[in-house]
Every structure is written in C-alpha cells, then in structure tokens.
C-alpha cells in the first residue's frame, strides 16, 4: 500500500549515509544548526506567547512553531528525528546496513 513511499524513504537513507561518510563534520554541523534554528524558534514562540492574551496564547504559540520548522527547511538542515525515521526505514528495506 505504501511501498512507493517506503522505497523513496529508503533511497533517502542511502543519501543521508553517503552525506555522512563524505563530510562527517558538515553533516554534524548541519544537524546541530537545525537544532539551533528550532531553539531560536522556541525563543520566538515563548516571546510571542508572553505578549498575547492568555486566552489565545496556545493558538499563537502553536502557529509560531511552524516558523521554527520553516527555518530548518530554508536552511537546508535536517533534524535528528528525520534522520532516525529515514535510516530506520533504510535498514528495514535493506538499502543500508546497520
């Protein structure tokens, strides 16, 4: 049912492994920067959440979280959670070995 999607994720796992082998320092710096972008987004979330009325605070904070994830996407970084998903599917599909 989802075979095509799983195959695409498994192919992405091979790309991630290749990137990590070719440039380990760049790979780790990119991952760390993704975490830093999310951290900056969290600072923005709490700053904006503190400025609005408590009745709409969860809505504003939830909507602002998308900005944090957008920073990661625009920068071209990848988060640990994404790597974990793709690499797990890659191992299960046999595209990469553990």
UniProtKB/TrEMBL annotation:
GO terms for cellular component: plasma membrane. Its main location: membrane. The chain crosses the membrane at residues 25-47, 59-80. GO terms for molecular function: formate transmembrane transporter activity. The keyword Transmembrane applies. Pfam families: Form_Nir_trans. It is a multi-pass membrane protein. Keywords: Membrane, Transmembrane, Transmembrane helix. It is found in: Membrane. Belongs to the FNT transporter (TC 1.A.16) family. This is Probable nitrite transporter.
